[in-house]
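Subject: Sanity check before I submit

Could someone independently write out the structure tokens for this chain? I want to compare against mine line by line before I put it in a report. The sequence has 474 residues.
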Amino acid sequence: MDRRDILRGSAAIAATWIGTALPAAPIRAQTSSAQSASTEEARAIAREAYIYGFPLVDNYRIQHSYFVDKGGPEFKTGWNRIFNNARVYTPDDKAIQTPNSDTPYSYVGADLRAEPLVLGVPRVEATRYYSLQFIDQYTFNFAYVGSRATGNEAGRFLLAGPGWKGDKPAGITAVIRCETEFAFILYRTQLFGPDDIENVEKIQAGYTVETLSAFLGTPVPAPAAPVAFPKPLSPAAQKTSADVFGELNFILQFCPPPPVETELMARFARIGVGAGRRFDPTPEIRQAIEAGIADAWSEFATYKTTQLDTGKKTSADGFGTRVHLNGDYLSRMAGAVLGIYGNSKQEALYPVYFVDAAGQPLDGRQAYRLRFAPDGLPPVHAFWSLTLYRLPESLLFANRLDRYLINSPMLPDLQRDPDGGITLDIRSASPGADRESNWLPAPEGPFFLALRLYWPMAAALDGPWKAPPLEKAS
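---
Independent answer below. Compare away.
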């Protein structure tokens, strides 16, 4: 990905932050420290702070569109309520880059400042995969409920924020603790085919969300202070404008700082970055900060080319708990850029094809084939899929078949090779009527492919199985 492609057309976009947050805990004084750093230092610190902060900012953009912006096209529902999407994602869904189109989603935006939430799940038949992915404001995956993590029996799980000090009440299966005051719970319920949607809807109807006081029948605690959620920067502006740090300062108010990041935050404060700070750099420092943002994108591009495209790093490096990522903020940024809300590796693996077997970027003007040997299908406990995304948006591609992926539930309908293997055709033009069952339509331009392995077996996690190469077709 060329940095010019990332930055093109967005250099003049900026935003002014006028919203004021009223968090539950005190915040630091509204002061600016940008002048304490030289322009060279400001540029270097901005690069580091941007790599750290981009996932938080992009996460806020999505949560704002889902749970705050009631008049927006992506709005789902208010905080602490569940929204069930009784369909899979299509090209019309544009808020989240690189979504799957296998599992209808359900969503909860959790405001944990006043009291915990109790999340109920129904019994789900043993053959169907489902999961609840718990994501904090840093985009760490801090917990899971579902087929792999807790099984398919019914249960009630208490989700508590950093300020709650209680013990597990009777009737609660387990307590899940979040280190930030807001969280995102992303539900995935496996769909076996179009005629299975009513069964998915019945399961989704069994997902419940209630406050702890409602669950216990006790008095409702005092509500948390209201928050004036500012309008987020556009995706283009958050890639170039120094005002991204004003947005980050707002978000950090709801993220009690972990001790491991004390020195990091002290360094960021030198350019005015920190919880509740007023971000108001001088024109000279602002220019240096925006140069630092460009440096961060250049570093990301190098990381993608040298680490992700070559297979030295995978999705397993970009998604997981705070302990798992262990301060690798560049991998966390890459995960957010290329597929925010990706699962931890135990829940799902994502071999991604940005380039073909010869190391060339994928382009629909060329035809490709992906062959699985008879014994080489992805080893999973749940299911696998191959999904195509057009670039630069990283969104599903509209095509005449309305086919955005090929997955394991489709195996009975796929044409087999003479030896029993399966070859998938990825191209813009039809490979012929006799092979359309194996065709994944591509745009006449750049795209990439994501292979998803849900609940991967040991052979995929640590064993001999490797994703097959994507070859050019003659």
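---
OP: Matches mine. For the report I'm noting this point. The first strand starts at residue 82 and ends at 84.
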